[in-house]
Write a structure and sequence with these properties.
The chain has 292 residues and is an alpha/beta fold. Helix content is 43%, strand content 23%. It has ten helices and 14 strands. It has helices at residues 5-17, 20-27, 31-45, 61-88, 101-118, 131-139, 201-212, 226-234, 248-253, 282-290, and strands spanning 50-53, 56-59, 94-99, 123-128, 145-149, 157-165, 167-171, 183-184, 193-196, 221-223, 239-243, 257-259, 261-262, 268-275. Strands 4-3-5-14-6 form a five-stranded mixed beta sheet, with helices on both faces. Helix 1 (5-17) crosses helix 3 (31-45) and helix 2 crosses helix 3 (31-45). It starts with a helix and ends with a helix.
């Protein structure tokens, strides 16, 4: 049996008004069109749905049974349309974001605070993963967009460049003498080095930077987060690379000292990753407008 939603809309309003003329007016079509549509529906279902009278139409027993279900369906469709309208007006919705702990703390959080103040009814879920893991989640459809460390690439993903990040070499006050003049990258092996665990985009970026200058980074400690790197560096375990904006308080207070590396680490950026060919919800689009 062929399903035609328009047939059921005509049936619903005809039953509601008990009149082909009023149904035609409600649907902005002609009365003959209403009559023809009802005949098609009756032929499809194999039985009469209305008794024709001089005053209009009344439902048959079969028509009354059908009307109960069609009325519910129309009601649910109206609810669905209302929900869509609310989502478009950002009165309702959900956003799923993927980002590392560090990017959440130092980049995403302040923008989420602004967005939440303006649109408090939008539910936001953040999944904390590394950049490679975030990209995987995006391609699996488990998040709407990701906040990642660039450079990275994937043929199925669009990357929008956002805030710049400048990595710098730091240590605690025990290494203050190294800050008095440019420190050659090739001499880094003379000091204990702290790095993130292998596999993440930040570690890959630093390894590739060093290798491009003929240096292989050999850390004494490999840690799971930038916050741990900062804590270990402050405690004197060695030197580490960190984004300068992440440690402005520690640098200004003297807990950490920046060591001017030569050549300096190239500037990189935060990136906003979205899946090619997949439209974003109204809420996700609006949140992206909050991200520089």
């Amino acid at each position: 049996m062929e399903f035609n939603m328009e047939w059921y809309r005509v049936f619903y309003w005809t039953a509601k008004f008990g009149s082909l003329t009023k149904a035609a007016e409600r649907l902005h079509i002609t009365q003959p069109a209403v009559s023809h549509t009802l005949k098609q529906l009756e032929a499809s279902l194999g039985g009469l749905l209305f008794f024709r009278t001089t005053k209009g139409v009344t439902l048959t027993t079969e028509g009354e049974v059908l009307f109960k279900f069609v009325e519910q369906a129309i009601h649910f469709l109206e609810i669905g349309e209302k929900k869509i309208a609310e989502m478009q007006e950002l009165m309702y919705g959900e956003i799923n974001i993927g980002a590392s702990d560090t990017l959440c703390k130092h980049y995403l959080l302040r923008h989420l605070e602004q967005f939440h103040k303006e649109f408090p009814d939008i539910k936001i879920r953040v999944t904390n993963r590394t950049t490679p893991e975030t990209i995987t989640l995006l391609k699996e459809g488990k998040i709407d967009f990701g906040i990642v460390n660039l450079p990275t690439s994937d043929p199925n993903i669009n990357f929008r460049i956002s805030s710049p990040q400048q990595d710098c070499l730091v240590g605690n006050h025990d290494y203050a003498a190294l800050a008095e003049k440019p420190f050659p990258l090739e001499e880094l092996h003379q000091y204990p080095l702290l790095l993130l665990e292998p596999g993440g985009s930040t570690r890959n970026f630093l390894d590739e930077f060093a290798i491009s200058h003929g240096v292989r980074l050999k850390p004494e400690f490999e840690l799971g987060s930038l916050d741990l790197l900062v804590q270990f560096a402050q405690s004197g375990f060695g030197l580490t690379f960190i984004v300068r904006n992440y440690v402005t308080v520690e640098l200004s207070s003297g807990k950490l000292v920046e060591i001017p590396l030569t050549p300096p680490v190239p500037e990189r950026h935060v990136g906003i990753a979205t899946l090619k060919g997949v439209p974003l919800s109204a809420a996700s689009k609006r949140l992206l407008e909050f991200l520089p």
